Amino acid sequence: MNVSPAVMAPEVGSQGCSHRMSHHLSAYKVADPMHLRQALGRFATGVTVVTTRSPSGKLEGLTANSFSSVSLDPPLVLWSLQKRAPSLESFKNSGAFAVNVLGAHQHDYCKHFATPAPDKFQNIPYEIGYGGCPILEDCIARFECSTHSVVEGGDHLIFIGRVENVVYSDGEPLIFSAGSFCVPTRFQKPDNANDIQTAGQNATMQRECCS
Ligand SMILES: Cc1cc2nc3c(=O)[nH]c(=O)nc-3n(C[C@H](O)[C@H](O)[C@H](O)COP(=O)(O)O)c2cc1C
Fold first, then answer.
1. Is the overall model pTM greater than 0.85, yes or no?
2. Architecture of the domain whose range is 45-179
3. How far is the CA of 94 from the centre of ligand 1 (A)?
């Protein structure tokens, strides 16, 4: 294989790569989970705590950054759950979940909800929302969903939810990037900044119903 001296390519996957790569990029074997994880970490995400209530009444919640929008009409969102998660059966059987989008001020929740525990809601302020799911106070957005479908995705299950209620407020989002938590730095406003609408101008939670 011909690799230009300018291209740093320690290992190249069996598929190879026909694109000319920038000298800043390194290619690695896709099968190496460590490198795959490192590369995925370059895609910065928000951070959520996804919650549910099992049919027997157990409250579950876990830190998840796999959340994504799917469709506006009908209103669908998704997130994925590793199959070995202790909360898997609860999410599979509950029929509902809530996606709580964390603000920068809530970074303590990340570790808390990413650590397995018999009752993660002890000493955490919450209310009960759609489908009996616990909803966290002070989040910058929340999507309360009925479970629309559950799709196989390798070592994860992909949960697609129909949004039944949505709330959001102004506030700085928490960002997860390359294994670290960050807060956003905004670009300088352009001259025509006044033409650009900012969503959620006031600090009060706005509640909207999708159905
Ligand atoms: C920033 C961050 C994002 C995460 N995203 C996910 C995710 O999208 N899906 C997942 O299954 N686990 C994710 N995890 C790991 C879970 O939060 C962790 O395994 C949790 O303990 C699972 O909850 P459970 O033990 O109550 O089942 C993430 C952890 C962190 C710190």
1. no
2. Roll (2.30)
3. 18
CA of 126 to the centre of ligand 1 (A): 19
> Over the stretch 41-84, which tens digit does the pLDDT of each residue have?
999 999 999 999 999 999 999 999 999 999 999 999 999 999 99
The pairs formed by 1-5 with CB atoms below 8 angstroms and a separation of 24 or more are: none
Ligand 1, pocket residues at CB < 6 Å: 47, 60, 62-66, 79-82, 85-87, 110, 114-116, 176
To test ligand 1's pocket by mutation, which of 59, 62, 68, 78 has the most ligand atoms within 8 angstroms of CB? 62
Residues forming a β-bridge with 162: 76, 146
Residues in the chain, overall count? 211
Q: Which helix (H) or strand (E) holds 148?
A: strand 141-153
